[in-house]
Specification:
CATH topology: Helix Hairpins
Radius of gyration: 17 Å
Catalytic activity: Exonucleolytic cleavage in either 5'- to 3'- or 3'- to 5'-direction to yield nucleoside 5'-phosphates
Family: Belongs to the XseB family.
Number of strands: 0
Shape: elongated
Helix content: 55-70%
Distance between the termini: 32 Å
Strand content: under 5%
GO molecular function, one term: exodeoxyribonuclease VII activity
Order of helices and strands: HH
Number of helices: 2
Subunit structure: Heterooligomer composed of large and small subunits.
CATH architecture: Orthogonal Bundle
Keywords: Cytoplasm, Exonuclease, Hydrolase, Nuclease
């Protein structure tokens, strides 16, 4: 049974996405299955991006002082 994407944590979603990418790149899935895999992969990608954006916002909140001014520097890669 396939786990609902919304119930996955970041690591589970990333592993599932990596598995889908492998299957699609290998060409081992027929067309209809490939389309379904691509759709699920897109859902997983969106979930991972949302979780990363949430983590980034939390980190930014941690490095800001009570008045909103930065208390340190944090560099994030281009997304």
């Amino acid at each position: 049974m396939t786990q609902d994407v919304a119930d996955m944590n970041f690591e589970q979603a990333l592993l599932a996405l990596e598995d889908i990418v492998h299957k699609l790149e290998s060409g081992e899935a027929p067309l209809d299955e490939s389309i379904a895999l691509y759709e699920r992969g897109n859902e997983l990608r969106a979930l991972c991006q949302q979780r990363l954006d949430t983590a980034k916002a939390r980190i930014e909140a941690i490095v800001q002082g009570p008045d909103g001014s930065p208390t340190g520097t944090t560099t994030f890669g281009a997304g």
